[in-house]
Amino acid sequence: MSTIAERAPVIGAALDRVDAPLKVTGSAHYPNDFAYPGLAHAALVRATIAAGRISTIDTSQAEAAPGVLTVITHLTAPQLGRGPMTLLGPSPPAPLQDDRILHYGQHVAIVVADTTEQARHAASLVRVRYETTDALLDLDDPRAEVVTNPWNLDTERGDVDAGFAAADVVVEGTYTTPDNTNNPLGLMSTVALWQGDSLTVHDSTQWPHNVRTSLAQIFKIPESGIRVLAPYVGGGFGAGLRMWPHVILTVLAAREVGRPVKLVLTRPEMFTSVGHRPHSVMRFKLGATRDGDLVAIDADGVSSVAMEDDDYEPVSLCAAVSYACPNVRTRDRQVRLNIPCPGSMRAPAEGQGNFALESALDELAHSLGMDPLELRLRNFADVDPLSGLPWSSNALRECYERGAERFGWTSRNPEIGSMREGRWLVGYGLAAVSYPAYQVPCQARASLHRDGSAFVRSAATDIGTGTYTVMTQLAAESLGLDASRVRFGLGDSDMPYSPQAGGSGLTGALGNAVHLACRRLVSEFLDLVRDDAGSPLRGAKPDDVTVSQGRIHLTGDPARSEAYTDILARHGLEELSADGRSTPPQPEQLGMAVAGAFGAKFVEVRIDPDLGLLRVARVVSAIDGGRILNAKTASSQITGGTVGGISQAMFEDTATDGETGRIANATFGDYLIPVNADIPDLDVIFVGEPDRATPVGTKGVGEVGLVGLAAAIANAVHHATGRRIRSLPITLDQLMR
Ligand code: MOS
After folding, report:
1. What are residue 621's phi and psi, to 5 degrees?
2. Is the CB of 241 inside a 6 Å radius of any atom of ligand 1?
3. Which end of the chain is more exposed for a tag (fewer CB within 10 A), N or C?
């Protein structure tokens, strides 16, 4: 069988979202839409100090309040297990296991009542006294524990010191990014229902199987007795990658009261309960020849992490993997603070590190008097800088060329402050992105029914990215059916195993599993008719056939064909099913470095130099995402990512009070994100071709959309004003005259 990528167009049809009618009519049920007879409601009590211990906790008033069913604290909670170690690191520790407070907002009690209002009122009546100790809240606090090389990902190649000694030009800068909070629109919600020893959980998760495995380990029950459902999730941005303590508390509460329980986090609780992008300080130093050849890079990153939990954020690593440079050293450290645990947020690590790297390159270009685009082209990595292997695909040059052409980069006058539009200073900036590939094993099952329809499923999630739609398209193509005849199912842990919707890796992992399941299904049909005298396909091998219009055809003689439905009918079958299992492509086996997505981002900004106003006027994103399954959903992904990137660059800043550790802006009234008026027309173009590492040929097009905007905007600001912004977000006070 030829791979799909060889036969299909690079850009798939712009099919409307198959789940759109359900969503706009309110028939798509999100986790907090579920109710059961006898449903009780939970509310959390959160610590109001950042470090210390609970000296007393008085629940008597709360327990006596109307409608209250139970109040669980560390004094009454059972001992709980811990969830599994995953590719993303360990699971968060279970809540309410002792009297220690490690961060502001830590859950210290859960209250269950007949209504949400009763639960919240009762939660306000829980009286907690604390013994406070000094909170560690500052990355520079000398008392804080420093974890060096936390992921064993520090890199070193060549001779960095000799490289700098030989450099004609050296630039060095310290770049900082603040805490950011994921804030999916859908408040994260859990509904837990025990029926005897079996448990059903509706949850805002990006990874149903992880919730199932975690709950099995924590409550010491078999996985087979647990079903986790998440057919619709109101966004994730990484907040749903881990199973956080509030899910455990809801399940515990439901067991305790013997009724189904629902917990919907409040927006302020979202800021302390489900992870955030950590604060980072990055010292990046680049050395180059006068001609602009990079000869040395030294990148050092420090990020905050929680006292007793972990998070994966190798912020300096991008400096080792993005450009051809013989002498490179990258190092990462984490500093343990009394903060809510950071977690993956929209391009974790890349979102921070790329700002440092692509800003430093702009500084280098400026020092060299070289066009920043030319500098990047000059240092293009023809092969993977880490392994030296050829890329499975890499159209970054095409991203530069097509993006620059679309943007009109050549009309940029390199002189600082030289371009104007009325009273506005105009700046052009760019940044590149080399997003790492992430793929993990995945399974899917495909069934063809007697009525000619197909049902394909996997326990994946669609967090708004379009998974339902692109998998429907892919299955339709692999089976030769019209998309309207295919139903795709997901968000149910009873379905075949799927990894998380994260790391921009699901479309690849799941797409290949779906493709393999569908191809195997076609093989099953051929097996059925192998000795079938009545079939024109008798004796045909999978390599001999193609599929279209609900039929299998002999490729060499397309008139010889048979419909799936006829084969099923003749064999007295209601349906036929097959499983597919994708495994991550192996670079050694392929002799290729498995490439992630690439991108070039071109930005025009306008600045009012008197008022410090900054406006993004235009953005062109040129993306190599490998094979694009659906032009519309892929483009929406990049558009959404671009909004997130503008948001990171200019707005988002989770402000922690340095005295108490309280997050001071934990509402949508105070935490800034862009509104429509902040976002200009966003131009997205896809370049490149199907990636060679997998049969389907896709690469992730999620996070590559966000990365690069912060640096491109900051670089444009420099072009307009001569101000070098090394600290996000870019605020008015940094730009005023
Ligand atoms: Mo993402 S931050 O891998 O959901």
Report:
1. -115, 120
2. yes
3. C
